[in-house]
Amino acid sequence: MIEIQYIFELFGTVVFAISGALAADERQKHDWFGITCFAFITAIGGGTLRDLFLNSYPLVWIADMNVIYAVFAGIFLAGIFYRYFSKLRTTLMLFDTLGIALFTIVGLEKAQSLGANDFISVMMGMFTAVMGGVLRDILINKTPTIFVEEIYATACIAGGIIYLVLDSFGVDRNVNFIVSGAMIAIIRIITVKFNLSLPKFYK
Q: Which of 13, 41, 44, 48 could cross-link to 70 by cystine, CB 3.0-4.6 Å?
């Protein structure tokens, strides 16, 4: 039986690829090759950095071709439904939110499986979720979301902590995965809807 974690990892790859394609095209019109590059960077960038930091080889997208197929599926869907997606103001945010919710827990569990402690596991979960978007934003000359007012990486950290707390109480792994990922999405959506942010740093 395919584990729910693996299904969510592939689904997260699809939605991050869609997010990357839409974000790149929103900033500046690109051809299919350019969009493909941005989609790949967004979808696998965070996981690649995580694996490099944890000294985990082969890299996840090299070891599993399904990850590559998932990226192409996201690009295909972004192209087919582009007009529909582009009319929805919140579409990019929603795809990005789904991506970070899924990838945070995937990255956390990957770090745990390699023997990382709880702190490092949460950080690796956050890195998996946000660093692909950071690389994408830098390449399209946009200030990465985690460096501005929106609560983004903080939502990933909160979701990772929730996962560890529930796990300590013996909550079923699949249930924990869904609940923790849902909490990340809820935190992100609420903070965007009500324009909430962390306190500013003043000199």
A: 13
As a whole number of angstroms, the distance between CA 83 and CA 91 comes to 11
Structure token pair of residue 86: 């582009």
Q: Is 2 left (phi over 0), alpha (psi -120 to 50) or beta?
A: beta
Q: How far, CA to CA in Å, does 123 sit from each of 40, 56, 85, 149, 189?
A: 22, 16, 31, 20, 21
Element (H, E) at 43: helix 32-53
How much is the pTM? Answer: 0.88
CA-to-CA separations, 191 to 1, 10, 151, 152, 195, in angstroms, rounded: 37, 26, 6, 9, 5
**C-alpha 18, offset from chain centre:** 11
Closest CA to 117 of 171, 160, 59: 160
Pairwise CA distance, residues 69 & 46, whole Å: 17
Q: Mind listing the pLDDT tens digit for each residue in 137-186?
A: 898 888 887 877 668 899 999 999 999 999 999 999 889 999 999 999 99
